[in-house]
């Protein structure tokens, strides 16, 4: 069980989110897009390191109706598994959002407040 560790291609898939912020409000839709080698086929999606869905398209919409964190990964045809993206879902009135993408020391950190 869990995410398979064997590679199926040379380059990792690239997983992005739109909007590229976390946390998001409950029931707010987030579009995840998986980019890979461009080989046709099904895109594999993983939720909290478990196989979740297969789609013909390279994107999927996610939302939650309960607060909490979820980790998403994808594998595009002909590419390896993507690094994970963790989305937090909040039922607060006000959230301080940070970018979903990983930051390294020295990166500028943009914060966003939403209500």
UniProtKB/TrEMBL annotation:
GO terms for biological process: cell surface receptor signaling pathway; immune response. InterPro entries: Ig-like_dom_sf, Ig-like_fold, Ig_Fc_receptor. The keyword Signal applies. Keywords: Disulfide bond, Signal. This is FCRLB protein. It comes from Pygoscelis papua. GO terms for cellular component: external side of plasma membrane. The keyword Transport does not apply. Residues 1-20 are annotated as: Disordered. Gene3D superfamilies: Immunoglobulins. Residues 8-19 have a biased composition (Polar residues).
């Amino acid at each position: 069980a869990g995410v398979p560790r064997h590679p199926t291609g040379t380059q990792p898939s690239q997983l992005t989110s739109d909007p590229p912020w976390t946390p998001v409000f409950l029931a707010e839709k987030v579009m995840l897009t998986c980019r890979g080698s461009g080989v046709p086929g099904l895109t594999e999606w993983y939720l909290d390191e478990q196989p979740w869905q297969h789609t013909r398209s390279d994107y999927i919409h996610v939302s939650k109706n309960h607060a909490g964190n979820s980790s998403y990964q994808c594998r595009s045809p002909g590419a390896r598994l993507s690094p994970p993206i963790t989305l937090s879902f909040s039922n607060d009135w006000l959230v301080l959002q940070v970018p979903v993408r990983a930051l390294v020391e020295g990166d500028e950190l943009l914060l966003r407040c939403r209500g």
